[in-house]
Amino acid sequence: MDRPAGRQPDGPGRRRRRAEPAVTTSEGELTYAASGVDIDAGERAVTLMRAAVERTNRPEVVGGLGGFAGLFALDTARYRKPLLASSTDGVGTKIALARALDRHDTVGIDLVAMVVDDLVACGAEPLFLQDYVACGRVVPERIAAIVTGIAEGCTQAGAALVGGETAEHGDLMGADDYDLAATAVGVVEADAVLGPERVRAGDVVVAMASSGLHSNGYSLVRRVVDRAGLDLTGTPAGLGRPLGDELLEPTRIYARDCLALVEELGVETVHAFAHITGGGLAGNTVRVVPAGLEAVLDRGTWALPAVVRLLEEHGVPRAESERAFNCGVGMVAAVAPEHADRAVELLIGRGVPAWVAGTVGAHDGGPSARLVGSYR
């Protein structure tokens, strides 16, 4: 694999590789840079991102400059029976809009959110994350902006960024193309794992507002933008800001808020979380509903976001919106009914708009989740 650098700046598990001497022949220059891999550019990117990465360190991070792997000391004395949880994801075609607008400082936050908000769904605390950036050409400032966003996401999630890799694939990707992926590891007590096994009839579904479209449905979004000739720098009626700003709004990171909810109310009260990604609200909520039960969510408890209405005005059917987009809800929690108001109060106090959106009841057959009513 062509790598200009192991993109491991000063800090645990982040190594840097030195450039080899240039090789020339009488037939012309034969260097790594001439072949499309610029080691010097990779080194400059490392320098630009160093401070942001260092800010993500946790006390458990072990090691320093030059390591080939990130080390993290799990404090086993802190846990009774710890289970490690892991999650891998990417950002998807939202990156195409970042390229179109030449703004690369937010997609790193999206990357972290997609991974850690999956982790916390089972009640796991995100511990550390490693990222992978593949690109056609290393532009140091661009790579630094991407990784600075990743570091910001890790800071929001409380996770350490213990390693990463930037791979320059000039023969496979266009010069300005790049893609992102990350893997995070978390920990949860074996007797505190959340999920459908804990959900029961009478539970209340608490919705947490999304910050925008998050990181799903962007192939459809881009198709609408292209077909309708929408101007990413213009401000459509009802949106209140340029369309590009709306579409690049980073994904809300709920990890610490969900963990605070569990810490305050306990697993006897907070039974499950569902991260609302591809598949929409009903399609993801059903993943935490056991057989014989159904989650019924009332659209009338919140307003459909203006950006979704805009996309619908340009041809997206409502049924497709509710499958492709989060429609204003980025995470839901199933909680015991007697503590629903307290759960909402706690989340709002932490800056996450939240409300009671539905209930869980008996249902014949397999697990079910559906939306009823009309949006405000």
Distance between the termini: 52 Å
Number of strand segments: 14
Oligomer: single chain
The chain-level structural class is alpha+beta
What does this molecule look like?
The protein is α+β, with helices and mostly antiparallel strands and 376 residues long. The protein is 30% helix and 23% strand. It is built from eleven helices and 14 strands. The strands form four sheets. Strands 10-12-9-13-11-14 form a six-stranded mixed β-sheet. It is globular, with a radius of gyration of 22 Å. Residues 1-5 and 8-26 have low confidence and may be disordered.
Notable features of this structure?
23% strand, 30% helix, 11 helices, globular, disordered N terminus, alpha+beta, single chain, 376 residues, four-stranded mixed sheet, six-stranded mixed sheet
